[in-house]
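[Primary structure, fold]
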Amino acid sequence: MASKVLHRQLKAPYPVVAAGEGVWFRDREGKRYLDACCGAAVSCLGHGHPKVIEAIKAQLDRVAYAHTGYFTSTPAEELADWLIARAPEGFGRVAFVSGGSEANEAALKLARQVHLERGEESRTHFIARRQSYHGATLATLALGDHKARRAPYEALIAASGEIGTTSHIAPCYPYRLRRADETAEAYGLRAAGELEAEILRIGPERVAAFVAETIAGASLGAVPAAPGYFREVRRICDKYGVFLILDEVMCGMGRAGSLFACTQEGVVPDMITIAKGLGGGYQPIGALLVRESLGAVIAERSGALMHGHTYMGHPVACAAALAVQRTVEEEGLLTRVRERGAQLKSLLADRLAAHPHVGDIRGRGLFVGIELVEDRASKAPFPRAARLAERIKERSMALGLMCYPGSGTADGVEGDHVLLAPPFIVAAEELTLIVDRLVKALDEVFDDMERKREDVRHGRSEQGTGKAAPRHGRRQRRATV
């Protein structure tokens, strides 16, 4: 029977998930899949963790839902206390929403409200970075610059008004944008300098905030900033009264090896958005953390947050997230993330550093990206028409591996990467298996692409025969599963 679900892809069948345990999924047919990406860097504790399940059940026995227009709840208050106690200095308020898009939308609206309540009505402009992704609402699509996801809605984004006042500067992307004669630190300062130039171009009195992923995730493939970049960004924002909003929806909550990724940069932003690893996938939840000084502006003036959703502060979601965060801390999983992350990068380097189509291996903690190129010397990307990311995903799933390939890496349209973000509980032998299966998937995809190019060059066609045309000089595969 045909599915009635409006799936993400309507021309391809989906396996039906039946169970999840640890770092593994099993579908209804009994096939197992090794989760090397946590869906989208979500399932930090893996699947079926008993402590979290028990916390959800216990909260359901008390109360499942209470609208935040009438009540607060114990899980929301305790989770807020927990996060603020561990957040960078100066943070004092939290709003709980249902995911990363909502968290970033809330940040935009709060920035605007604070400026209004301070009497700075002209501050309507937001600056973000090219090749960024901040969510799927119209406002967050406008804020981001993921061209493929924006394309169908450009007319709506323009019509939705100002966040029609959004502009973009270059990402901090050392692999492609750092000059050969530049130190990493010099490049970081130059990249940050684009923000000051853009603020001056727009007019400082018009700029509300600068928004950036602390570690660029889905659209660039786990790219950390160059040394000193965010410290210079913080200085520039302070100089012109611009809020610094750091999007840690993907890279935060331990994924990069510290609870908040910005602590590794030595900066304190004005707002931080989190989601994915906050609740580990056990319930839908995201959050906006705000410095106490900004919350105080609203508390002392209008006294009302001009923003809300039906499921804000959901008691069961907050209870699940609190259990996830307590488990991460009690089991020392941040240390494990750093250790396993180093092991993963070492395994990838051993197997792929000399690969003719691997340009860069990067990331922090268990948040690792592999940028793929057609030519290593020139860093030329594969054309989008090659559908490399899609092919890798399909081949990996066939081999029982879930990874997160992405496209548009190089310039927003061309280029591909693979993102790896396994659960914090992943074992060393499971990391080896992840790399084995990924290398095998890459080899098979690239071999198939080369075979088809040779077929075209030689006028061969095996269409309809059910056979693959032979190819000479086949590179020896090094993967085992």
Notes: The longest strand covers residues 91-97. The two ends are 34 Å apart (CA to CA). Residues 464-481 have pLDDT under 50 and may be disordered.
